[in-house]
Design the sequence.
């Protein structure tokens, strides 16, 4: 975990934090900047710099500070964060000063914008959707990463951004695949695991062992299921059927509001959200 806290008038405000899984080697980069940024280098198929940034909406951001940040990032890099800028370039209905500032940054440094037409922010007061969160990268990375946005707010006002590696040349870490003996069909196993005299009566003992092993594994593959090898999700002992039902109701209310953003549907969503929070706390 890497973080950069920010205090305004002795109160916590803004700040940036990133979590990287232990399965990927990573290290923090020391960035000399007044901006709210955290940057790490992650070893995926190759070494990639990932920078997380937050630009407060009412704060004056100097263009030179953004330029200095770019100069400190080892290429190739991806910049992710809440820029609080509007620009028709990424689907906004208008362009403001911050949006023009980010557009200049893209042009001056020949950077690529990964965003598609998906909204990334919901403004509860006006019940409107906007794109404030951007994914910017070096040109060499642009062909290999696809941008998408989760359709669930997860109790925030920002939708999580998802970047998906589009090529099939990277193997994600997995756990060793194991036989699940508790679910084995032993009758089927016995019917396919038949040793013959020819298997064991061989002048070379290694060939005999190899023949028996192949017979065992062939029968096991047919009769004993295997684990997927995927890394497990974190176990939540407090999660129960009430939580599941409340989450489903909140999701249903949210989907209805997104399709029909009326005041009544917004109120119904807020009620469902509040009830889901209550159920989680009671569990």
Sequence:
């Amino acid at each position: 975990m890497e973080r950069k806290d920010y205090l305004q008038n002795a109160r916590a405000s803004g700040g940036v934090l990133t979590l990287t899984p232990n399965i990927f080697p990573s290290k923090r980069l020391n960035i000399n900047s007044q901006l709210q940024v955290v940057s790490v280098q992650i070893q995926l198929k190759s070494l990639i710099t990932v920078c997380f940034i937050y630009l407060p909406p009412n704060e004056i951001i100097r263009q030179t500070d953004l330029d200095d940040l770019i100069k400190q990032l080892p290429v190739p890099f991806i910049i992710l964060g809440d820029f609080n800028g509007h620009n028709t370039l990424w689907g906004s209905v208008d362009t403001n000063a911050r949006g023009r500032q980010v557009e200049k940054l893209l042009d001056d440094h020949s950077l690529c914008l990964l965003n598609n037409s998906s909204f990334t922010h919901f403004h509860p007061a006006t019940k409107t959707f906007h794109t404030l969160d951007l994914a910017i990268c070096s040109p060499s990375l642009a062909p290999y990463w696809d941008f998408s946005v989760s359709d669930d707010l997860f109790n925030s006002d920002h939708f999580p951004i998802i970047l998906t590696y589009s090529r099939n040349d990277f193997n994600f870490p997995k756990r060793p695949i194991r036989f699940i003996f508790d679910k084995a069909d032993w009758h089927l196993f016995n019917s396919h695991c038949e040793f013959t005299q020819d298997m064991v009566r061989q002048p070379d003992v290694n060939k005999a062992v190899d023949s028996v092993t192949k017979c065992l594994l062939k029968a096991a593959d047919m009769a004993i299921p295997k684990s997927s090898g995927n890394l497990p999700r974190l176990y939540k002992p407090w999660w129960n059927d009430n939580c599941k039902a409340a989450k489903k109701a909140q999701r249903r209310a949210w989907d209805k509001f997104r399709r029909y953003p009326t005041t009544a549907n917004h109120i119904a969503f807020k009620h469902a959200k509040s009830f889901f929070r209550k159920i989680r706390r009671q569990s």
About this structure: The longest strand covers residues 36-43.
